[in-house]
Write a structure and sequence with these properties.
The protein has helices at 2-19, 21-43, 46-49, 51-69, 73-97. By secondary structure, it is an all-alpha fold. The longest helix has 25 residues, at 73-97.
Length: 114
């Protein structure tokens, strides 16, 4: 009987600790990854060259933050993943559509005769 109580107590503690993982997953997925992905798309001018995917990413990210503010971390994490995926597509599309820019001096080819 003592072992059964101990097992139940251990299970209860494990369940309580697992419930605290929601904010941790949110911080990893939304605060770090999705935010960085949306920022990378913004830097590539995805708002101009891939407006659909960029807007979708921004909206998903905003909704993820809104859900997290209401402590709905599972939805926030899922929306963060969707924001990250949309931002990746926006970045790819923006890089494909943007005109080639002049190379920066540090990227210019070196060598050759002058």
């Amino acid at each position: 009987m003592h072992r059964v109580r101990r097992a139940l107590a251990t299970s209860a503690v494990m369940a309580a600790l697992a419930g605290g993982c929601g904010p941790v997953a949110y911080i990893k997925q939304v605060t770090r990854k999705a935010s960085a992905d949306v920022e990378a798309a913004r830097t590539a001018h995805a708002d101009t060259y891939a407006p659909f995917w960029y807007t979708l990413a921004v909206e998903f990210l905003g909704k993820a933050r809104e859900e997290a503010a209401e402590a709905n971390f599972q939805a926030a994490d899922r929306l963060g993943e969707q924001a990250s995926e949309a931002a990746d597509r926006a970045l790819d599309q923006a890089l494909a559509r943007a005109p080639r820019r002049a190379r920066a001096p540090e990227e210019a080819p070196t060598g050759g005769a002058r």
